[in-house]
Design a protein that fits this description.
- About 35% of the residues lie in helices and about 20% in strands.
- By secondary structure, it is α/β, with parallel strands linked by helices.
- Among the domains are: about 180 residues, FAD/NAD(P)-binding domain (3-Layer(bba) Sandwich); about 120 residues, no CATH class.
- A seven-stranded mixed beta sheet has the order 7-6-15-16-17-14-18. The protein has a five-stranded parallel beta sheet with strand order 9-2-1-13-19, covered by helices on one side. Strands 10-11-12 form a three-stranded antiparallel beta sheet, with no helix packed on it.
- It starts with a strand and ends with a helix.
- The structure holds flavin-adenine dinucleotide.
């Protein structure tokens, strides 16, 4: 049986392993760390459990599909709930908004906060839905940009009317025209950060992200976000995939003048494979010379997405005014993004995201405590003085929580762990610690992401958040599906077993 190597047990690598194994290939995964999951990771200490990376799950059906492929019943291994409250927003002027799952109720609540807001939200969500239905199948579900994609019915529809993508406004520009209240503009601008982009630069096309959360729903796994990686890894093992942990791959071995690959080098040993799928950040792969093939010109100069600084706090007490997901907005959003993307540093009044999984999973914190994940956006790691920035940010975040959420945490933090662009880079191999590969800060970004397969190298494929269709769990899973279809086609063309 032909054998495929997968480099990296991130969510995309695991999903690719399951899909390719389901086609009948022998599959081995090589992961440099001691546990699978990559950015989807957890940390446990003194009775607390923290999800280190993702906290919001959208499109859980993409996870379930992987169990179905193996003929398994997803709820036996992976259960999740749709959230009634999507997010709790706090603004510096003291106003707050609890966003419910139901879009009509959400629109009504916005109407109570801001004159005319109800109709504006309804109209905006309708536009976002149309955009998602038109552009989603083209940009997210198939190889892109390819001749086939551009000639497809969706490609032609958009080709005839590119304005459907709303590409000429920035996300902020569009939102400013769509909402009369600056708080609601800020709320919808925030969706650009879901793939590490700047709403003042990213095209309004990204407004389709709002549709995912508000119409398709926000979810949370019963056993926390890490259970996605844990259960996919267990599924892969049940299917017969071999997962080699603590196995950093040093090199992808090429043959035939770089036109094909013959295997990988791990721990100084050369291992032969019929094909290789890389889930390693694409910049790291080329720039660390894991692959001795020139990088495609297209996309080389794309700017990186943002990174993050996260404090994981074991906190004494219960705080009923907070929910699972909470946002404490900055006063000056534009300035905050200027600091992040132009000045490459942290802003003194950051938007703070608080995620408290113990609100839903009581065992995530000891009795009488909560587990707080306090995150701010951060620039990629360019050698900034992180120790100093982290110290200052800690004070700024605590102050923000005090002034906006009216909670004084002083003396109540009983445990602390910190992740920052430096540690994210070291642990996951993300280039400079950016969370989503290239940002979408330009109109052409969707057209210049690295493809899942390079025409010139016949049996090498790329998956994961830094290549097409992009980052975030749903897109990583979509990318793994594209790669497995490409491999199925390769098998037919090459007539391999
Ligand atoms: C703090 C944070 C918050 C986030 N929030 C969300 C969210 O709420 N919702 C959401 O959908 N997404 C979120 N994301 C993004 C999401 O986590 C990622 O897009 C996704 O997990 C990326 O998966 P991946 O498989 O592409 O890459 P990774 O998870 O980075 O996996 C790559 C794997 O490759 C391994 N590797 C690297 N080099 C080698 C080598 N040489 N040999 C062997 N193995 C190697 C790494 O160790 C790693 O395990 C967040 C990410 C972070 C960090």
């Amino acid at each position: 049986m032909a054998e495929i190597a997968i480099i990296g047990a991130g969510i995309a690598g695991l999903a690719a392993a399951i899909r390719i194994r389901a086609q009948g290939f022998d599959v081995q995964v090589f992961e440099k760390e001691g546990s699978p999951g990559g950015k989807v990771m957890e940390w446990r200490r003194n009775g607390f459990r923290f999800d280190l990376g993702p906290s919001l799950l959208t499109q859980p059906d993409r996870v379930e599909e992987l169990f179905h492929l193996a003929g398994e019943d997803p709820p036996k291994h992976f259960r999740y709930q749709r959230l009634d409250t999507v997010c709790h927003y706090f603004w510096p002027d003291g106003s707050t908004l609890e966003v419910p799952d139901d879009p009509a109720l959400f629109a009504r609540r916005v109407g109570q906060l801001a004159d005319g807001g109800s109709a504006e939200v309804e109209r905006y969500l309708e536009e976002a839905a149309l955009l998602y239905e038109t552009a989603g199948p083209l940009f997210l579900e198939r190889p892109f940009p390819t001749r086939e994609a551009l000639m497809s019915s969706q490609g032609q529809k958009i080709g005839r009317n590119p304005m459907l993508l709303d590409p000429f406004f920035s996300m902020h520009g569009r939102n400013r025209r769509s909402f009369s209240d600056p708080r609601i503009v800020q709320l919808f601008d925030r969706y650009a950060t879901y793939n590490g982009s700047n709403p003042y630069k990213a095209p309004a096309t990204l407004k389709m992200i709002a549709h995912l959360e508000h119409a398709m729903g926000a979810y949370f796994p019963d056993q926390g976000m890490y259970s996605i990686a844990r259960e996919l890894s267990a599924l892969a093992l049940r299917m017969g995939v071999i997962i080699n942990l603590n196995s950093p791959v040093e090199k992808i071995l090429t043959a035939n003048d770089g036109k094909s690959v013959r295997g990988i080098r791990v721990g100084g040993k050369e291992l032969k494979f019929d094909g290789v799928v890389s889930d390693v950040d694409i910049n790291t792969l080329y720039l660390n010379k894991m692959l001795s093939v020139r990088r495609p010109l297209l996309g080389r100069h794309q700017k990186l997405s943002s990174s993050a600084l996260i404090f994981y706090w074991g906190v004494k007490g219960h705080y009923p005014s907070l929910d699972l997901h909470n946002i404490l907005f900055s006063q000056d959003y534009q300035r905050e993004f200027d600091y992040l993307f132009r000045q490459k540093t942290l802003y003194s009044d950051p938007t703070v995201y608080l995620f408290i999984s113990s609100k839903r999973i009581s065992t995530d914190a000891p009795e009488g405590h909560e587990n707080w994940f306090a995150m701010i956006n951060a620039p990629e790691n360019l050698g900034q003085d992180w120790d100093q920035l982290i110290k200052q940010a800690r004070e700024n975040i605590l102050m923000k929580i005090r002034t906006i959420a009216n909670i004084d945490l002083a003396g109540n933090v009983v445990l602390e762990h910190v992740e920052n662009p430096r540690t994210i880079e070291a642990r996951t191999g993300s280039w400079h610690g950016s969370l989503y590969g290239a940002s979408s800060n330009s109109r052409m970004s969707a057209f210049s992401r690295h493809p899942n397969h390079r025409r010139g190298i016949e049996n090498l494929w790329f998956t994961g958040g830094s290549v097409h269709p992009g980052g975030g769990i749903p897109l990583c899973l979509a990318g793994a599906s594209i790669v497995s279809e490409q491999i199925a086609q390769y098998r037919i063309n090459q007539r391999i077993k």
